[in-house]
Amino acid sequence: MLNVMLEPDKFAYRVLFVLLGYLCHAVICLEPTEIDASPLNLQAHHSANTIHLSLRNSKRLRRNFSKYFSDIIAKYNNDVDGVCGLANHPSNDNNFNNAPWSKIVGGVETAPHEFPWQVFLILRKNNDESFACGGSLISERWILTAAHCLMDINLIHITLGAHDVEDENEVYQERYTSREYVIHPDWDSETLHADIALVRLPINISFSKYIHPVCLDSPSDPVVNYVKDTVVLTGWGLTSDESDGISSVLRKTIVTVITNEKCLEQYDTVITDEMICTNGEDHQGSCFGDSGGPMNFRQADGTWKQIGIVSFGSNQGCESGYANGFTRVSSFASWIQNITTQTEASNRSTSILATQQPSVMALLLLLALLSG
After folding, report:
1. Which of 11, 89, 97, 209 could form a disulfide linkage to 111, CB 3.0–4.6 angstroms apart?
2. 156 has a pLDDT exceeding 90
3. Where is the Peptidase S1 domain (predicted)?
C-alpha cells in the first residue's frame, strides 16, 4: 500500500473543499422536498361542511440550486423583527371601516403577501381523496387551522409565503409536507364544538416579510366579544356558488361581527360562547375551501390578531346571505399554548442533537483525512 504525501497547500484545499461540500449538502444546497401535489386546476365537489377536491395536472416541484440559493439570500435580506401580525400592505389605513371590498366569494384579490401568515393546505385522506383548506402561521413551527379539515387525513401539503398558489415560480413560496397534527380533544363533528387544530411543520422556519406569524390572544388577555367590529376574512376558497374550483390568488373581504344571539336565530342550538359569527349581508363571507383560515382583526397599533377560524356556513350556499360561523380563538388560548410549548420542550433534546450533527460529521471527515 502506497502512502501519498500531499503538498501542504493541496492538502489544505482538499480538507476545505470536503468540509464545504458536506456543509453545503447539509445546510443550503439541498433542493426542497418534491411535492407531487401542485394545486393546479382543482375541481370542486360540494359536501355538507367542507369541499372535496381532486388534484389534476399535478406537476412535480423542483428548483435548481442557483434559484434556491438566490431565494435564501433574498429571505435573509428581508428578515423582520420578531413582531407578530405585521401586514406588508396595510389595508386602506384611513378608511378601513368603509373599505369597498367585495367578499371572498367573487371577491377582491389581496396585495401580494399582504397577509404573510396565511397558509394554503392540501389535505390527503387515507383513500387518496384531496381537498383544500386554509390555515395561519402562529410560530416558527406551528399552523392553526380547523379540526374538520384534518379528519381522516394521511398527509398534509403546506404552502407558506404564497399569493398565487398555481404559480410554482413565486420566489417566496416554501412548501412542506407533514403528518403531525393535533385535533382538540373536545372536537365534535355534529355540534361543531372546538373546531380547532394545530399542524406541526417538519422544521423551524425562518420569518421574513413574506412569511410571518399572526398575533393571538394569550390565556391572560381579557375577553372581548368584538360585536360590531369589522374584521377581514382571507382565503383561496370558491369565488361563487357556481365556481368549479378554488381561487388561485388570495382574496379578502371585510365583514362585521354580530352577536351570538343573532347568529342563534339562523343556526338554532349550534352556536356556543366558543364561537363567533359575522353577518352575511350583501352576500359577503367565506366559502368552501376557506375552512381553517383566519378571521383577522386589526389592533390599535396597526398589527393584526387572529380572533376566529373559518368553521361553517349555511347549507343554502355561500351567497345566501346567512351568517358565517367561526371558532373563537381566545376560548382555546390555553390549549394552543400548552400544545405548542409542551411539544417543543419534549423535542428540545432531539433538536439540539440534530443541530450539532454537521459539526460532528465535519470533525469525523477531518480526522479521516488526517489519518489517511
Report:
1. 89
2. yes
3. 104-341
